[in-house]
Amino acid sequence: PALLKTGDPRGQEDETGAASSCSKALRWLSAPCGLQSAAVVSEEVRRRLRYVKASGSEELSRFPDFLIIGPQRTGTTWLHAHLRYHPQVLLSEPKELYFFSSLQTREAKRFVSDELGWYLRFFRDAPWRRAAKIALCLQRYGELYRPLVRGEATASYAAIDPSVIDDIVVLKPDIKALLMIRHPIERAWSHAKKDLVRNRKRAFDDVRAEEFRAFFAEPYQRRCARYAELADAWSARLQPGRLYVGVFDEIATRPHEMLLDVMRFLGVRADPKYVDPDAGNPVNPTASTRIPPEHRAYLAELFADDLRAARERFGVDWK
Asked: Which residues of the chain have pLDDT under 50?
């Protein structure tokens, strides 16, 4: 368990308990995983791909079964944090790979490769990590870590071009996607605080009003607020029932029920024992800074149509 930092006091144990769990983990390390191998990428699939490069030797069975697609500041890190220790879920390490969101732009900060083989290498546990997960699952739940589904969480996937979604579906026709939505004004403000203040190690007062407004008006930020359009782009390409839409507000009002809903959607055991008692606590929050009235007024005007569309499409009562 010491190999995985859970941040959960239940993950701390005395030396005797740790030795016992690790001993069991080593005995079970060679136990078969629930995930099975399948055929490699076919020539037909290779021909249909527009952006992803495949040699034909990749094990397509290692492609993720689900994607947590974002957008940013909507609770995707919270969702990832509470799914990563489920005994039937394997999530990529690191959390965000940016593979599909960088295929078109080739942005230097994010783009590493367009090779499918590079991407798939993140969906297999290293022996030490599998041993640690086995030990943790034995300790927490009294059962083995035997993943049935693989997943990835990159919050910029929600807004990728539909043609890139096409590549994803070519590679995994029955893939599932989880879209999280949050009041667009609150989401944009949280994103701005993260990118302009926290990530740049600046004080809030050091960011000029013009910087905030320029950030809010960026095309990507505008697209992140168009939840109905994002949902349409994904649902038009996914098989029926393969898109889950979660509302950020429910992390505070019904976190346990929401996580169980997600588990059922993913097709893994939805047992309350897999839900942390502190699931209602925020993960990766920014500093609590109220939106200045001038910024709120600007954002209200900027996102007026998006708010209206969200209320009509998802039944949210955002004002």
From this structure: 1-19, 21, 25, 30-32
Phi and psi, residue 80, nearest 5°: -60, -45
Whether the CB-CB separation of 162 and 133 falls below 8 Å is answered with: no
DSSP string, 37-65: ---B--HHHHHH-SS-B--S-SBGGGS-S
Asked if the bond preceding 71 is cis, omega within 30° of 0, the reply is yes
Q: Is 260 in contact with 276 (CB distance < 8 Å)? A: no
Sheet containing strand 149-153, edge to edge, reads: 89-91, 149-153, 66-70, 176-181, 243-247
Burial of 175 (0-12, 13-18, 19+ CB in 10 A): buried
pLDDT at position 32: 47
SS3 for 68?
strand
pLDDT of 34 reads 61
Type of residue numbered 273: K
The answer to whether the bond into 94 is cis (omega within 30° of 0) is yes
At 79 the pLDDT is: 97
How far is Cα 48 from Cα 46, in angstroms, rounded to an integer? Answer: 5
Alpha helices in the chain (DSSP H): 15-28, 43-48, 76-83, 116-120, 127-141, 162-171, 184-192, 209-217, 219-224, 227-235, 250-253, 255-266, 293-302, 304-314
Contacts (Cβ under 8 Å, ≥6 apart) of 237: 162, 165, 166, 168, 169
At 273, phi and psi to the nearest 5?
A: -65, -20
The whole model's pTM is what?
A: 0.88
Let me know: does 77 contact 178? Beta carbons within 8 Å. no
